[in-house]
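User: As part of a screening pipeline, I want to sanity-check one entry by hand. Below is the sequence and the SMILES for copper (II) ion. Please return the complex as structure tokens so I can compare it with the automated output.
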Amino acid sequence: MTKYKADIVPLNDNKIGTSAHGTATFEEDSDQLTITIEMFDTPANTEHWEHFHGFPDDKPADIATAAEDVNHDGFVDLMETEPVSGTTMVPFDDAPENMDIPHDRYPVSDGNGHFFYTKVVPLKTLQANFESAFGSKELQLDKRVIYIHGVPQSLKLPDTVAGMVADFDAHVTLPIAVGKIERVD
Ligand SMILES: [Cu+2]
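Assistant: Here is the complex for your manual check:
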């Protein structure tokens, strides 16, 4: 069994009015990946997309910070995270192994901005789909970062905030927290 964890720290907290934070753990054995994510102080009563992001080559991903706000609109949007964090890879939704990203089957926070997510994923299925998408079946979790997304539609976003994915707009994809996944020995 190989264990990984991530300390998840706020992003865009000065704009969204709450500092989302939490932890994620990943336990990988030969045929299962067990994922646990607990978040606090996210925007309340809101669906939160969550994924690991990374680079398809061997480059390690790093977390985005305010420095990634290259258009200086005060928000680090999804596109601005890509130079340091790479692309969206695997969702933490109702079926991570399917690697289906744009949909509404992600966790929803309660009235206090809390949610708890856990899922046992069939590793072989996930690895096969990961290889189809990115050319390698190795998840390389210690080279990935976890992103939590999502603010209410009522939050006013300037037009400069990008992040439309399929039918979902920048409110859904705006990053609210991020953590580097590290191996635990
Ligand atoms: Cu994501």
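Points to compare against the pipeline: The longest strand covers residues 175-184. The CA atoms of residues 3 and 79 lie 30 Å apart.
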